[in-house]
Fold:
Amino acid sequence: MEVVKVRNVIIGKGRPKICVPIVAMTREEIFGEARAFVSLPVDLVEWRVDWYEDVADVSKVLDTAGVLRKILGDMPLLFTFRTEREGGERAVGPEDYITLNKAAAESGDVDLLDVELFTGDEAVRTVIEHAHRHQVKVIVSSHDFRRTPSKEELLGRMRKMQDLGADIPKIAVMPQLKRDVLTLLEATLEMSEHCAKGPIITMSMAGMGVVSRVAGECFGSAVTYGAAGRKSAPGQLDAGELAGVLEVIHGGMENG
Structure:
């Protein structure tokens, strides 16, 4: 299985990488969060641009991304507009969504894009191809805040993401029962062992799904999302605590 290298971070090798979100409305708040992350045990920073008050102005988005790049130094930056239908702060039309993501890819300040699977096959392919022309990697994602689909559906979504050209497929689902968490972990294991060409990201949300956020190395998920302030999804753990747990599991697996 191939790994994905973004700056100095290798996704798909060793312990799961920790990604923390910037969820803030103003430039000052965004930059303040970014400065705090630099000293934390995190590997990637996700800018949730759907929270940004000036997200409708592409030039301001790009200018803010440029400043973020300088603050973060060599830490990889993931650019994400999470749509309202998948738990984000705003609705957006397909054309504006494509335009924003293509502009981010062209900027030279963004290392990865998160593109939602249900934007549509043609739109997803368009953004992926454009991003790859500018040496930007793409996470194709699907979020369900209501339920956990069947294992077959989860596998089908991840395989489709891969077929569309995703560098990293991502699935996040909400458990209603403890067994739902097992469904997510079983789908993760099967995908990683039998279907994946590269790294994948999966998680079961809320308190019931916390185990999925720390057990990625056991089942095949290569990135986990923590928090260092405001959370972007239910169930995210403090980044510092998360790093400690991941190191314990990693050490145990290496010594086992």
